[in-house]
Every structure is written in structure tokens, then in C-alpha cells.
Amino acid sequence: MATDFTEETAADAVIESFGPDTDPRLREVLVSLVKHLHAFASDVELTIPEWEKAIDFLTRTGQKCDADRQEFILLSDVLGLSMLVETISNRKYGVATESTVLGPFHVVESPVLELGANIDQVGTGTPCVVTGRVVSVDGSPLPGATIDIWQANDQGFYDVQQPDVQPRTNGRGLFTADGNGEFWFRTIVPSYYPIPTDGPVGEMLIATGRHAFRPAHIHFIVEAPGHRPLTTHIFVAGSEYIESDTVFAVKKSLVVDFEEVTDEAQAAQWNVGKTPFRHADFQIIMQPGS
Ligand SMILES: [Fe+2]
């Protein structure tokens, strides 16, 4: 063990302390982490009060987490780390649909629903029909693909944020694509929304002059046998904040038109109670693999 720790030898002293039986990948990650962490502290000449403030910030971030609130994912999201890891893990494969962040609200198991079901259990907001199909990169349909959906309501809140207003599982559904890989469901057009700002992450956004908003979107996790699972969103074209998502998650290929429909016959066919309503249609292209 090293003695007389200096600014020059600090990182190496820590790295040399790792034992010979350390898992190789854990060693690789920790060696790099220690090097970058020490370089960062040296670079900014981190003071003791700043270090104490950082410890307090991280402590409070952890204390803000519970079964329905994930402040650490929020922190990762607003620092762009979530999107960076997503992008590294899912480098775009040719024509496959692009991935984006999971976000902090996938905390409730989605109810299993029949195709065409309405995931909106409240009845406010602009009705919307979402149709789509799941295919492989060669265009062949993927029957039996599962599509896990979750979204905010027309006020920009998820069910878990409003336990007294929204039924738990409002805005959520787990669907199975039909024999042609096609799926459809009814919902309402989600609103743009602010990420929760009543915690340490909100303090950081205010301190850095940033807004807290995300453009309107619907979350998807799509799984199909023999293909890589896909975590993504579709974004509502024209939504506010589409150019400045506070978690950096917008990719142009994921922006979808939610077109206005006034056709009464179409409303009847899709069991939508009134016109006008909105219709979004898109294709999910899955990458073979596991
Ligand atoms: Fe979201």
C-alpha cells in the first residue's frame, strides 16, 4: 500500500490496491473510473466544501428514490449519460428502428390487453389511435412480438405521479402483435411534461438555467423471438420542446405525425367515440440477435 499520497500518485495508488483476483471487467471499469475521477477533481481543483456539497447532493438523490420515484435515473438522464449508454449499446444497425432512453417511469407492470383496447382509463384528452407493425430488417413480419406501452396523460403526468387522480396502470398496456406482426390500440394524445423538479435534479436544472421539459411521446419496449429487445419512444411531431428535450432523447427517425381524422366511418371502425381524433402509424424494425 502506498504512503505519502500525492496529487501525482493518487490515482495509481488506488489502482494498485485492486487485488489480483478482481474480475477483469470490474477492474477495467474501476481503473478507468478512478483515473477519470481523479483527473476531474484535479482539473477543477475541487475544494472540500464542494466535495461536501457533492456528497450531500448524491445522498439526497438516493434518499429521494422509492418504488415509484427514481431520482438517480433522472440524474443520469439530464446529464446525458443515459442517452450515451443507450447509443453505445445500440449503435444503429442499418434500417432497424432507433432506441432511446427507458426513462424513470417504467415502474408499474403493464396490464396485458387485447389489440384495440383503450389504455386511457380516464376519458379526458384528445382520442388517438396508434397502429403499427413489427418487422425484421428484411421486412418480414414478426407475429407474436410483444409491445409494452406507457405514456403520460393529457396533463403530462404518469399514473404513478397522480395516485389520487389516475388509476394505477392508466396509460399502460402490454399488447401482442397479430399474425401479420400488426398491432393497434386506443389512447389519448400525450402531453409534453416536465420531469419532476422537487428533488436534487430539479435544483441542478435551476442552478444551470435549464428547463425541465420533455416533448410529448409514447414509450415502447418491443420484444420478438430471435431479435434484440428494443426500448424506444415515438415523439409527437410538432410538440413543444421537440428540439430541446431535457434528457436529450429525441431522434428524428422517431418523430411521428399524429394526423387529425374527421371521418366518422373510420371512427366507428376503430371504436373511437368522437371525431376529430388523431391517428399515428409507424413501423418497428427489429434487429436480429439477442
Ligand atoms: Fe416519458
Can you summarize this structure?
It is built from seven helices and eleven strands. By secondary structure, it is an alpha+beta fold. It is globular and about 80 Å long.
Features:
290 residues, alpha+beta, five-stranded mixed β-sheet, four-stranded mixed β-sheet, 7 helices, 26% helix, binds fe (ii) ion
Q: Say which molecules are bound, naming each kind only once.
A: fe (ii) ion
What structural class do helix, strand and pairing data support?
alpha+beta
Name the shape in a single word. globular
With helices defined by DSSP (H or I, 4 residues minimum), what is the helix count?
A: 7
Strand runs, count:
11
Distance between the termini: 43 Å
What share of residues are in beta strands?
A: 15-25%
> Portion of residues in helices?
25-40%
Give a quick account of the main beta sheet: strands, pairing sense, barrel closure.
5 strands, mixed
What is the succession of H and E elements?
HHHHHEEEEEHEEEEEHE
Looking at how many chains there are and whether they match, the oligomeric state comes to single chain
Q: Mind telling me the C-alpha Rg?
A: 23 Å
Overall average pLDDT: 94
Report strand order across the widest sheet: 3-2-7-8-9
